[in-house]
Amino acid sequence: MQHGHKIKSLLAVSLIALALFASAFAAMPASAKKTASKTSATIALEADPSTLDWTTTTDQLSTEIDWHIYEGLFAFDKNFNVRPMLAKSYTYDKGNRTYHINLRQGIKFSNGADLTADDVLASFSRWEKLSNLGKLSAVHIDSVTKAGTYAINIKMKDDFKSLLTNLASVKQPMVVLPKAIVDQAGTNLLTNKQAIGTGPYKFVSWKRGSELKLTKNNNYKSLPKSDNWGGLAGYKHVYVKNLDFKIITDPQSEVNGIVTGTYDYAEKIPADLYKTVKAAKGVKTIKNAVMYPAFTINHESKYFKNNSDLARAINFALKKDDMAKASEGSKAFYSVSNGSLFTPDNKSMYTKAGTSDYFVHDLKKAKALVKKSGYKGGKIILVAPSDKADMKTNAQVAQSQLKKVGINVKVVTYDWATVLTKENDPTAYDMISTAWTERYSPDELSQMSQKTGLSGFYQSTKFADLQKQYDMTSSKTERKKLLGQMNKEMYDSGAFIKLYDKHQLDVYSNKLHGINGFIAIKMWNVTKK
């Protein structure tokens, strides 16, 4: 999400520039050489998060802030097993199709209020209304009721197999808020002051375009150290009390800041700089979240509505390897060998079935589909984020490549936060250059959810039908078959255009210990020497 043509000139001089840092560093004032103390860390982000309301967003920048603040009944461990978090235990009565969930007692929100079943019920209701996963799950839920001060019952309408997975989701999980906050917010986005959770950190302040600050939640009650499950689950201890997230839109400045000690951690470094930062003294690198850059297709657009041919033509016209090289540079961080909705590492979800169209680059076939679509050369508006260079570069490369098959594209740029608002307006674009972080179940595939901004108002009911079949079976064989059909539907319907897979390159100071590679930065259980 970070790098492209215009950065190349900067990268070309970076080897020389960084080589000079050692001598320049000695002359720098002490305040610029280190980031405060062992109890504070400064983290460079490429852009502002879209919101602090985790229930409502799949934006990765928001997610990685929010998981420091909030927790849910369940969470994924490092191996993507569902673990209880605010839930102490649960049972499932097959005869009555009812989950009975006991809550941990003595849990407090960051504002000091006690967590009870009333908070869970209010938060659950909000999740069902605002989260795509919540809406999908709600169809299968008969009732959610209080079973005591610290217990709830969830009665199902049918044999829905994905409820706990959806509650624990990395994307739009059912996080628990104070009932008073839910009552205040209703279905509106949470304000910054309403960002109150049970997580290890709490919100302090946010100056958009500048910095966002969190500090230790002194009311936090962790699971025992013996439950050190990793991922987003289990034991969490705060050693680094203060987190200062700086909004640094220039990748070169991020790298410079890491080398000079201005930042402790920097995200989404251009892969072109991998060898440079790898060789820098006192700097460590880590491969984080897998994501796939893509083009959202606006299915309400006059060019694409009830017409998959033009989207399919675009898929066949794009030379994805050239695009990845231009945007990502180092092959160590991208791949054009996977056309699936899921990554090969996600063994229970991944299948090659239904992906053959991903590998086809055929201009003759593309031109035939352009003609069949009835497209007459009108200007297709491709929106791209100005502060995410890889997405911007992908749009620019596509503009050039699509000319070869007679498709006229105009690239229009906005900052990332504005792009996220544009996607909900079907009159604002024809395509959007974006990137989807890795998903862990079909129910998380919001890029194919029916008639939402996230999916470009994708119209077909076929994916939802396949999704429902998946959720109602526990057969591994049947599920793999359905996953292959989902892949095929992505290409047949022109739901969106998958470009390539990529790893996120993050860098951090060797003073930080305990950093791990689960999706993105997490600062609990991390020490600073």
Based on Cα principal axes, name the global outline: globular
Q: What level of helicity do the residues show?
A: 25-40%
CATH architecture of the largest domain: Roll
What number of structural domains do the residues give?
Answer: 2
Number of strands: 20
Mean pLDDT: 91
Q: Mind telling me the CATH superfamily name of the largest domain? A: Dipeptide-binding Protein, Domain 3
Structural class: alpha+beta
CATH class of the largest domain, named Alpha Beta
CATH topology of the largest domain, which one? Dipeptide-binding Protein, domain 3
- Cα-atom Rg, whole angstroms? 23 Å
Q: How many helices does DSSP assign?
A: 17
Beta-strand percent range: 15-25%
Major β-sheet annotation: 12 strands, mixed
Low-confidence stretches: 1-36
Q: What is the CA–CA distance across the termini?
A: 31 Å
